[in-house]
Specification:
The structure is a single chain. By secondary structure, this protein is mostly helical. It is built from ten helices and seven strands. A three-stranded antiparallel sheet has the order 5-7-6. The chain has a two-stranded antiparallel ribbon with strand order 1-2. The protein has a two-stranded antiparallel sheet with strand order 3-4. Helix 4 runs antiparallel to helix 5, helix 5 packs antiparallel against helix 8 and helix 5 packs parallel to helix 9. The longest helix has 27 residues. The N terminus and C terminus are likely disordered.
């Protein structure tokens, strides 16, 4: 029997096995059919499915946060105002981090790219920008005796985030925004169709890896990892259920930050190993570097949390009302 061919990309921690004998590959029926992103026409305006789901994600996050502010007896007006800050910070952070970390060469050619915030975006950039905006808002509003309230509001923000993030990742999956390496893994999107193969060939070619792809006949029996799809599944089936179960317990403000980071960051680091076109710094993607730094910060967060009192969900009069400017 002929030994399998090994296709090794220039991507660290990635190697893809290709067997030249199609009989050893799983049936294509086990893979997901490839499709192009749904686009809805409203006169001259094209509305993409990604944009629709991002809008739904924003609404869900704001609505859930508002409900939890009331549930924990916090001032809803303060929380809603913070939501506006977070939305702006998320939009700016998502774009600026994407441009500066992933496409630094484009800035010299087109400095105005920094202002076109509707173009390239990064999930980690959105997280960093949103957290920075929330931190600036809360630390400027709550001082002195009200300082402990900062962590209550911040905990709520992070608790609702995975719900919105999962919806956003569903949009990424519909748009195939985060293609990974080719494989014969069952949960991948099939490369059976010409459109699918053209798509993945363009992805590999843009990364300078076009010559590493197998012949068309072998490629048609395979699929490609869709990392937006994988993250949607992981967030929906693991992260959110765990957050809901732990939410029933008496816990310390900031606990949601610790849980989400511990659950998401290692898996995101692993998923980024499958990315094809992302820029690398010392062999790692910008997302992987953020994950490493954040994971190293978790012990310090945990030590800080242990000094804060625990709390239980309760309905009470809003607190921190005097801090509304």
């Amino acid at each position: 029997m002929k030994s399998p061919t090994i296709l090794r990309t220039s991507i660290p921690c990635v190697s893809v096995r290709l067997n030249e004998r199609a009989s050893t590959l799983p049936p294509r029926s086990q893979m997901l059919p490839f499709f192009e992103q749904p686009v809805f026409k409203l006169g001259p305006i094209s509305i993409h499915a990604f944009g629709i789901l991002i809008s739904i994600a924003i609404y869900v996050a704001l609505a859930m946060a508002h409900s939890r502010f009331r549930r924990f007896g916090l001032n809803e007006a303060v929380g809603d105002r913070m939501g506006g800050w977070i939305l702006v910070g998320t939009m700016l952070g998502a774009h600026w981090f994407s441009v500066l970390a992933y496409f630094p060469d484009q800035i010299a050619k087109d400095p105005w790219l920094l202002l076109r915030i509707w173009e390239d975006i990064s999930s980690f950039g959105g997280m960093l920008g949103g957290m920075l905006a929330a931190t600036v808002f809360l630390w400027s509003r709550f001082k002195g005796d009200e300082a402990p309230l900062r962590w209550l509001y911040l905990d709520i923000v992070v608790f609702v985030f995975p719900f919105a993030f999962a919806i956003g990742r569903a949009g990424c999956a519909l748009a195939h925004d985060h293609p990974g390496t080719i494989t014969n893994f069952p949960l991948t999107f099939s490369l059976k169709t010409d459109a699918a193969r053209d798509y993945i060939v363009n992805v590999y070619s843009a990364a300078g890896l076009g010559r590493t792809l197998p012949g068309d006949s072998v490629l048609a029996t395979m699929g490609f990892h869709d990392l937006g799809w994988y993250e949607f599944l992981y967030l929906s089936l693991v992260v959110i259920p765990v957050m809901l179960v732990l939410d029933k317990r008496n816990r310390t403000p900031g606990f949601s930050i610790l849980v989400f980071a511990a659950l998401y960051l290692p898996v995101r680091f692993a998923f980024d190993c499958l990315r094809v076109s992302d820029i690398r710094y010392a062999g790692l993607t910008p997302g992987q570097w953020v994950a490493i730094i954040a994971l190293f910060a978790l012990p310090f967060l945990w030590r800080n949390m242990r000094s804060r009192p625990r709390y239980q969900p309760q309905i009470s009069e809003p607190v921190g009302e005097g801090s509304i400017a």
